[in-house]
Design brief:
heterodimer, A: Rossmann fold, seven-stranded parallel sheet, 39% helix, 15% strand, globular, B: mainly alpha, 8 helices, elongated, disordered C terminus
């Protein structure tokens, strides 16, 4: 089904209908893609994945993309979730600050990501909350896989499944991943306990955690993120802190290489 | 809340890594192959050295040569059963030529068919008057009712024996460093005259 506001081209990649001035990101014009061409250089591919729904994948992906967009970078979002959360979000008033959103929830998401990475940095892929070919394929091309985990045993169990799927990939690139605690209750015992458990079990974990705040829901009503509607708020600061950690991680990787 | 919370993770990252790691390759436990291979005698050019299979390259090559000789001896025995005197000889000669070519190929000394034919003709020419007379007698006996069955059997056995001896002579030639161009027909004829086909090929 074609989205309400956008076009679905022959390769299944969806381009939301946004005004040119609002779509501040660049849009590739390669084979099967539509839009202007503003080459920006290859960018990293970041996949937000967990095999459990409701863990905050779409919120995390969109928040990071918008943060980087507002910081002057050229991120792009790929919605590989059949629920099309990002596509729906981008169709709202603020349209995620003009971050381009492409829809591809099939195994060809890999080709889409590689193509977009030539002119966008970074490429963020939001995946489905269950095992799909697109999710598994996306993890194989990811420079970094972020696993959002809510501080609950159910989320932790599914995170283990996700990590298993990730590490089972024959491609060594997929082994680079970090967990991030999402929707936590600030200073709660359960959050600290889950963090301590994951750390002691050897799972890499971002220091920053995204506390459960109403700012996310309110911003989503406008098709925005906390970084747009309250840039100095606590949620925006947490998003910025997480983005900084990711950036420093990438720097470390480049230095190691 | 001060009470101790139970474990949240059922597995550690290392445990998952071990679970998803591919099973160890049983070949990894074998000793290094290179040392074993390097201990083998160097094969002749064009001959593939046997990987570590517990036998030497020479033994493997001789076994292959022996198999070629015995197979063509069997073919020649069948050719000797042809009841027509001329055609049986043609069939046996063709078998011997083919055997020589295959032996030469085994030893990395490809031989043209005309060269192989010439060698066989040279050998056949050296069997002498007595040999020629025996062959003629056997051939003619194929036309004699009653004796033809015995003649066919004799012809078949003789063809197999001749093929086997010629084949072993060529194996000896190649094993001693001979090539397709250094074939000594006189030496082979001497070998042909002094060895019986029952003698096995010398094993190194």
């Amino acid at each position: 089904m074609a989205p309400e506001s956008g076009t679905l081209n022959l390769t299944g990649i969806w381009q939301p209908n946004q005004s040119a001035d609002r779509r501040m990101g660049t849009v590739p014009a390669g084979p099967g893609l539509v839009g202007e061409t503003v080459p920006m250089g290859a960018g990293p591919i970041i996949v937000v994945a967990t095999l459990k729904g409701g863990s905050g994948k779409s919120t995390l992906a969109s928040s990071l993309a918008v943060h980087w967009r507002l910081a002057g970078r050229t991120p792009v979002l790929i919605d590989a979730d059949p629920q099309r959360s990002l596509v729906r979000l981008a169709a709202r008033e603020e349209a995620l600050a003009g971050v381009p959103v492409f829809e591809n929830c099939r195994g060809t998401v890999v080709a889409t990501a590689d193509q977009l990475a030539q002119i966008h940095a970074p490429v963020l892929i939001d995946t489905a909350g269950f095992r799909t070919a697109a999710t598994l394929a996306a993890m194989t091309v990811a420079d970094l896989v972020i696993l959002p985990v809510k501080p609950s045993p159910l989320d932790v169990d599914v995170m283990l499944d996700t990590a298993r799927a990730l590490l089972s990939s024959p491609d060594g690139r997929s082994a680079r991943f970090r967990c991030v605690l999402t929707q936590t209750t600030r200073d709660s015992v359960i959050s600290r306990h889950i963090r301590a458990e994951l750390t002691s079990a050897g799972f890499p974990l971002f220091e920053t955690e995204l506390v459960n705040r109403v700012a996310y829901g309110e911003a989503a009503l406008f098709g925005a993120t906390p970084s747009m509607i309250d840039p100095h708020g606590a949620a925006a600061r947490e998003i910025a802190a997480l983005a900084s950690e990711i950036d420093s991680l990438a720097i470390e990787v480049e230095a190691a290489a | 809340m001060s009470r101790k919370l139970p474990k949240a993770t059922a597995e550690t990252l290392d445990e998952i890594r071990r679970q998803v790691a591919p099973p160890p390759d049983p070949l990894d436990d074998l000793p290094p192959l290179q040392a074993e291979v390097s201990a083998l005698p160097a094969p002749r050019p064009g001959i593939v050295a046997p990987a570590a299979v517990g036998i030497t390259a020479t033994a493997l090559r001789q076994a292959q040569a022996g198999e070629i000789v015995e197979r063509h001896a069997a073919y020649a025995a069948i050719g000797g059963l042809i009841p027509l005197p001329v055609f049986d000889s043609i069939g046996v000669m063709a078998t011997i030529v083919l055997m020589i070519q295959r032996l030469a190929k085994l030893y990395g000394e490809p031989m043209r068919r005309d060269r192989a034919k010439a060698l066989v003709a040279g050998l056949a020419g050296g069997i002498g008057q007595a040999g020629a007379g025996s062959m003629a007698a056997v051939a003619l006996s194929k036309f004699i009712p009653g004796a033809n069955v015995a003649a066919l059997m004799a012809s078949s056995a003789a063809a197999a024996a001749a093929t086997r001896v010629i084949g072993r002579a060529f194996v000896l030639h190649f094993e001693t460093g001979g090539t397709a161009l250094t074939f000594n027909e006189a030496a082979i004829r001497t070998y042909f005259a002094t060895r019986s086909s029952s003698q096995p090929i010398s094993r190194q």
